[in-house]
Amino acid sequence: MKVKSFEDLIEEVHQKGICQQCGGCVSFCNSMEYEVIGYKEPNSPPEFINKENCLKCGICYHICPQTHVLDDDLNRTFNLLDFSSMPYGNICDLYSCQSVDYDFLRNGTDGGVVNALLNFMFEEKLIDGAIVAKTKAPFSREPFFAKNKEDLLSTSGLKLGISQQLDEVQRFHSYSSSLPKISSTKFKKLAVVGTPCQIYTIRCMQNLGIIPSHNIEFCLGLFCYENFEFDQRKVEQFDGVFDIKFEDIEKIKIKKDLIIQLKGDKTRESLIHIPFEDLKDYMRPACNACSDFTNIYADISFGGLGSPENYTTVITRTIKGRKLIAEALKRGTYINLEIDSSKEKHVKNLLLQYSISKIERKENFMKSKLRNLKEIKSTV
Ligand SMILES: Cc1cc2nc3c(=O)[nH]c(=O)nc-3n(C[C@H](O)[C@H](O)[C@H](O)COP(=O)(O)OP(=O)(O)OC[C@H]3O[C@@H](n4cnc5c(N)ncnc54)[C@H](O)[C@@H]3O)c2cc1C
Ligand code: SF4
Ligand code: SF4
Ligand code: SF4
Asked: Which of 111, 137, 148, 268 is the most exposed place for a label (fewest CB within 10 A)?
């Protein structure tokens, strides 16, 4: 039987416009040091660089989040055999948490919990490095190795000044393809913060026991309904449609929708909420073909949905993730819990609603892709 390889990825994933640019294929292949594939253009799928060096080993195909070859294996490992009845994945514990450290809280997206937890892991020497994402330039975010608290704080950066308001927007619109970075690291114990498509790929690599996933100790997953792409034209369109100037934006969050806080507006009532349906023009097209909202294969998942202002919703999924959160909570100096923990049912309903909505969006998108393909074929 023919082993599917990068040529098949081009045909089945890239040409269909559903490459999520997670970087998994590049990450693995480059760890073999042949430079077979890589990125020729920013914000586009990887391409052959030295095609003649391709071993046709098929690993890139197997670990791609759009081929789903290893879904059954992963679902077994993560207790997700009955995936259809729990599209938000396996939940060990569900919390609303906040960073105790004011620096992380103030700079954090929601409760500053992800960075506070990474800081705890550094101090406890559970990890020696973390792959996160940092602003590179306007409209661009790049993967970044954090080694300590200062590094972590530098990734949260926001606040005043035009370029930093743009930074706030980039937090969500610009996809950071962190995985290729893993193959170049000398760190022995890593945590990776990633979107569901990235964490999926890492789990596939771990399932196959291949480098560079061997040194990843913790997968910290962010919820992700969609990622946005803005170029200058879209910025102007956004300004016009929503009557919001980018330079007036103080802060952006994503929970049930996109929440914008304008400079000088500090009250809850003055926040502007834009539903995801109204943001279709700014969404990365490949996100339409993605069904995981809550990052079901992470050790711990984090999102704003379901938590009050300045708190992060935290889902532990694995024994490792559970132990980590329990230990950090016990210390009392890293993260703490929201007092009212009686809303679990309500939060689960929200998670269910958004997870189902994302699954349905993917189904409709794939159906329309198939229809288009049939129409094109019938005309040739
Ligand atoms: C693209 C994107 C879409 C999201 N969509 C939703 C959503 O629809 N609903 C929802 O409830 N929550 C969503 N989230 C998660 C939410 O915005 C917060 O990231 C989460 O609640 C953690 O907040 P925190 O304050 O605890 O994290 P913080 O303490 O602020 O730490 C966040 C960490 O994530 C890293 N990071 C930021 N962006 C990326 C990235 N693109 N790739 C890898 N690492 C990154 C930062 O470097 C930092 O280390 C999304 C996040 C992202 C990045
Ligand atoms: S060498 Fe293997 S991993 Fe690299 S592109 Fe070829 S098939 Fe994919
Ligand atoms: S592994 Fe990621 S970057 Fe590579 S083809 Fe698949 S989605 Fe695209
Ligand atoms: S929706 Fe999020 S997880 Fe899915 S492809 Fe887009 S960025 Fe990746």
From this structure: 268
